[in-house]
Specification:
heterodimer; A: alpha+beta; Chitinase A, domain 3; 5-stranded antiparallel β-sheet; two-stranded antiparallel sheet; 12 helices; 55% helix; 12% strand; B: mainly alpha; Cytochrome Bc1 Complex, Chain D, domain 2; 0% strand; elongated
Chain lengths: 313, 260
C-alpha cells in the first residue's frame, strides 16, 4: 500500500487525482449537473415562444409576453418629441412607455374581440400587411447583375430613353363639311412648309389655325397624349425642320411642323440598370403575389352559392 | 517501479491527465468566453444607445460582432469600405450625410431593423422620388414636366449648390420647384431636405445618385428614384443589429460632431 504524501511532494497531485475520492466525485458531479442545468435553462428561457418573467435586453417591456422593442420605443420618442433616448426626460419616457403599453393591450383586446374579422379598417390593414409581407423578400432582394442582364436581354425593347419633340399642329378646318377644299388647301400649305415657309407665314397665307395642342418641347408620351395617336405617329416620323403631309381628322386636315425631334434611343444595360431592376422586381412580385393568392385560395374551404358559381374566376 | 504505481504514475498516465486537464481548461475557458460574450451582448442591448460610443469596451465588442454581419449582409451593396455606390444610389455611410435622421445610433438601428421601402409595415417608406417624364401614376397626382422644365429645375438645383447656371432658367426652375413640380413638398422650401422622410438636401453637393452632373440630375427628375434597404428584423439578432448601428456610426466622419 502506498504511503500518503504531503502537498509539498511533487507527486502529490498525481497521487491525489489517481485515487478514487467520493467527495471529489460528488462535487464534480454536482458542478456538472448545475452547469448543465444553467446552460439548458439559458437556452430554454431565451428561446422564442417561452414564457418568461424577465424582459430581454432588446425589449423595454413584455405585455402578455408580447415584446415592445427598444428600437420601437426609441422611434416613438423620436417621432413624438423629436428626441433620442439620451435627451428625453423621465416624464417623456414614462409617457411613451404608457402609450405603447396602452396600444399593445388595446391591440390584444381587439384580437380577442375578433376585430380583424369585423372592422373594415383592420381588415384593409391586414390585407395590405400580408401583401407586403409576402413581397418582402423580393422587394429587398438584390439580384445579381447576370440575372438583370438576362432580363434586359429578354426585354431589350423596353429600355429606351424617352424621346422629345417640339411640334406645331396646324389645322385646315373642314368648314361646312367640305373636306375636299380643306384637303387641297392643306396640301398647298404642306408643300409650302416643306419648301421652307415658316409656320407663322403659312398661317397667314393659307388661313391655318394653330391648335396649340403642344406646349414647346415635350416628351413623346406627353405629345402623344396631346396630339392623339394618329397625329403623333405622323409627327414623330418626321425629322427636325420637316413638315408632314395633310392628316385627315374629324375636324379637318392637320399639317404638323416639327421644329425638333429627338427620337428614343435604346439604352445599354448600364444606363438602364435601375429600370431593369425595378421591372425585374415588379415582375417577380407580380408572380409571387399571384402564386400566394392561388395558394391561399386553394387551401381555403370556399363554398359559393349556386347562383354565384358562374362568377368564380 | 511497477506499472500503475500510484506514487509514481507512468508517463502515459500523466499525459492522459494532462490532456484531460487541458481539455477541461479549454472548455472552462470557452464557457467563460461565451458567458462574457453574453454579458457584453446584454450590456450592449440594455445600454442607452447614444451612450455606447463613450464606452470603448462596447464599441470594440460591437465592431467584432458587426464585422462578419457587415461582410455577409451589407457589403454587397454598401461596399466593404461603407462608401456605397452612387451609380446605384447606395449611400456613402462614411461621409456623415444622413438621409434618415442625423446619424444617431437609435435612428440607424431603426433603419437596419425595418429597412427602407422593404415591404415591412414599419419600414421607412413615406416618400419616394416620382418620375416627371411619365404620365401621372396612382401614387402622386403630379403633373409631368416637359424637358425644358426639367432643365430649368436642374438649373435651379445647380444654383442651390453654388454652381453656375443661366439666371433666367434658375428663376423659372425656382417657380417650378415651388409650384408645378411640388418639389418643396419633400425637399422643403429651402431645399435642405427632410431627414424624417429621407428627402435629400439639394444644397450640399452630396449626390446619392450619380455624380451631380446636369445629365445625372436631369435623369433623377426624369425617371425618379426609389432606393431600398432590406429589413433585418427576425433575420439578424437584435444585438447584431445594434452592433451594426454602432459600427456604422463609428465609421461616420461626423460622429463626434453629432454626438458630443
Amino acid at each position: 500500500m502506498s504511503k500518503s504524501k504531503s502537498p509539498r511532494d511533487p507527486d502529490w497531485l498525481w497521487q491525489s487525482f489517481s485515487r478514487t475520492n467520493p467527495r471529489r466525485a460528488f462535487v464534480l458531479l454536482g458542478t456538472g449537473a448545475v452547469l448543465g442545468l444553467l446552460i439548458a435553462g439559458f437556452g430554454l428561457f431565451t428561446s422564442k415562444g417561452t414564457t418568461v418573467d424577465f424582459v430581454p435586453p432588446e425589449d423595454v417591456a413584455l405585455v402578455n409576453q408580447q415584446p415592445i422593442l427598444q428600437v420601437d420605443f426609441d422611434a416613438q420618442l423620436q417621432s413624438v418629441y423629436d428626441l433620442t433616448p439620451d435627451k428625453a426626460s423621465e416624464t417623456q419616457k414614462r409617457k411613451i412607455l404608457h402609450d405603447m403599453i396602452r396600444e399593445e393591450v388595446y391591440v390584444q383586446r381587439g384580437l380577442e374581440l375578433g376585430m380583424p374579422e369585423s372592422d373594415p379598417d383592420t381588415r384593409n390593414a391586414l390585407v395590405s400587411s400580408v401583401e407586403q409581407q409576402v413581397l418582402a423578400d423580393v422587394t429587398s432582394d438584390s439580384p445579381s447583375d447576370e440575372k438583370l442582364q438576362a432580363f434586359y436581354d429578354t426585354h431589350r425593347a423596353r429600355y429606351a430613353s424617352e424621346g422629345s419633340i417640339t411640334v406645331t399642329d396646324l389645322l385646315v378646318p373642314a368648314s361646312g363639311g367640305s373636306f375636299e377644299a380643306a384637303e387641297a388647301k392643306a396640301r398647298d400649305a404642306a408643300n409650302a412648309l416643306q419648301h421652307g415657309m415658316t409656320a407663322a407665314d403659312a398661317i397667314i397665307k393659307f388661313g391655318l389655325r394653330d391648335t396649340k395642342k403642344n406646349n414647346g418641347e415635350e416628351f413623346y408620351f406627353a405629345a402623344r397624349l396631346h396630339l392623339g395617336r394618329e397625329l403623333f405617329a405622323a409627327a414623330s416620323a418626321l425629322k427636325s425642320g420637316q413638315a408632314s403631309m395633310p392628316v385627315k381628322s374629324a375636324d379637318g386636315y392637320h399639317v404638323l411642323v416639327v421644329t425638333q425631334n429627338t427620337p428614343s434611343v435604346n439604352m445599354n444595360f448600364a444606363e438602364a440598370r435601375e429600370q431593369v431592376l425595378t421591372d425585374y422586381k415588379n415582375e417577380a412580385e407580380a408572380k409571387l403575389q399571384a402564386n400566394e393568392e392561388k395558394f391561399l385560395i386553394g387551401r381555403a374551404d370556399i363554398l359559393v352559392a349556386d347562383r354565384y358559381r358562374k362568377y368564380l374566376p | 517501479m511497477r506499472s500503475g504505481d500510484l506514487t509514481h504514475p507512468p508517463a502515459r498516465t500523466r499525459r492522459r491527465w494532462l490532456i484531460g486537464f487541458a481539455v477541461l481548461t479549454a472548455l472552462a475557458g470557452g464557457l467563460i468566453y461565451l458567458a462574457y460574450g453574453q454579458i457584453l451582448q446584454y450590456e450592449l442591448l440594455s445600454a442607452e444607445s447614444e451612450s455606447i460610443p463613450g464606452t470603448p469596451r462596447l464599441v470594440h465588442f460591437s465592431d467584432s460582432l458587426a464585422r462578419p454581419a457587415w461582410t455577409e449582409r451589407c457589403a454587397a451593396c454598401h461596399g466593404a469600405d461603407l462608401k456605397g455606390d452612387p451609380t446605384r444610389g447606395v449611400p456613402n455611410l462614411t461621409d456623415g450625410d444622413w438621409l434618415y435622421g442625423s446619424g444617431k445610433i437609435a435612428q440607424i438601428e431603426y433603419t437596419i431593423t425595418y429597412g427602407i421601402r422593404s415591404g415591412n409595415p414599419k419600414a421607412r417608406n413615406l416618400a419616394f422620388m416620382p418620375s416627371f417624364a411619365h404620365p401621372n401614376d396612382d401614387k402622386e397626382k403630379l403633373a409631368p414636366l416637359s424637358p425644358a422644365e426639367i432643365k430649368d429645375v436642374t438649373a435651379y438645383i445647380f444654383s442651390l449648390g453654388g454652381r453656375h447656371a443661366d439666371p433666367a432658367a434658375v428663376e423659372r426652375g425656382a417657380g417650378l420647384y415651388a409650384d408645378k413640380g411640388a418639389c418643396y413638398d419633400c425637399h422643403t422650401p429651402d431645399a435642405r431636405g427632410d431627414h424624417d422622410i429621407g428627402a435629400p438636401d439639394l444644397t450640399d453637393n452630396v449626390w446619392l445618385y450619380g455624380d451631380g452632373s446636369e445629365a445625372s440630375v436631369f435623369r433623377s427628375i426624369q425617371y425618379g428614384r426609389t432606393g431600398i434597404c432590406p429589413a433585418w428584423v427576425g433575420r439578424l439578432k437584435p444585438s447584431v443589429i445594434r452592433a451594426l448601428a454602432v459600427f456604422i456610426q463609428n465609421h461616420s466622419q461626423t460622429k463626434v460632431a453629432r454626438n458630443p
